[in-house]
Inverse folding.
């Protein structure tokens, strides 16, 4: 198990490095988009190459950062349901979901994209737009993104298996235990009281008339 966890940590380090590096492309996309708009409006000039650079960069951000999103536990969940499930139930859902849904789909996409990218590279495929860019690097981004997501899915499966079967602590970012059903039932929906009671400065003031005293 420790060898598998070491392998998982290695994948996590690669995913984190790629995700943090790709995040800087957001600034590049903004600068390219703004510069292209200014030149077009000011000098009435434009280029399909610059327009395609924008969606190349956007595709790189979306595909290469997907694995980092999974690592950071920031993918979309049906929170209204998962928040009422126990921690162990959610771990089982993640573990089985990775095995039967995420990993098979990633393997299928990689298997389909390999000949797709190779064919585009061998033909040195270019955009059909006038002045457009070469296309195979964009297709290679698709393949790279799915490979990274496949590896990260494998890493998450290993970590969930270690939590369920070996009692390893959960180090998933933002992981929170589900609230107990009894606690949710006793709390009013519009007034959540802390477990230790209200803070001293929030305690209701005593009614002087009720205590038999009057204020000046």
């Amino acid at each position: 198990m420790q060898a598998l966890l070491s392998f998982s940590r290695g994948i996590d380090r690669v995913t984190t490095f790629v995700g943090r590096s790709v995040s800087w492309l957001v600034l590049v996309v903004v600068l390219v988009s703004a510069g292209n708009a200014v030149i077009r409006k000011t000098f009435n000039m434009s280029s399909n190459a610059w327009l395609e650079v924008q969606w190349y960069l956007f595709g790189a951000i979306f595909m290469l950062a997907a694995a980092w999103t999974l690592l950071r536990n920031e993918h979309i969940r049906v929170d209204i349901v998962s928040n009422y499930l126990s921690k162990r139930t959610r771990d089982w859902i993640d573990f089985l979901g990775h095995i039967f849904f995420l990993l098979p789909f990633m393997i299928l996409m990689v298997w389909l994209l390999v000949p797709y990218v190779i064919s585009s590279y061998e033909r040195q495929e270019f955009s059909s737009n006038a002045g457009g860019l070469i296309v195979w690097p964009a297709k290679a981004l698709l393949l790279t993104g799915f490979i990274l997501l496949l590896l990260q899915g494998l890493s998450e499966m290993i970590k969930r298996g270690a939590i369920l079967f070996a009692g390893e602590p959960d180090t998933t970012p933002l992981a929170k235990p589900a609230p107990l059903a009894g606690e949710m039932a006793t709390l009013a929906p519009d007034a959540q009281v802390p477990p230790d009671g209200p803070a001293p400065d929030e305690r209701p003031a005593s009614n002087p008339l009720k205590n038999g005293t009057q204020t000046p």
About this structure: The mean pLDDT is 82. The chain has one domain: 2-76+83-171. Helices lie at 2-23, 25-43, 48-64, 66-71, 79-82, 87-123, 136-165, 181-186.
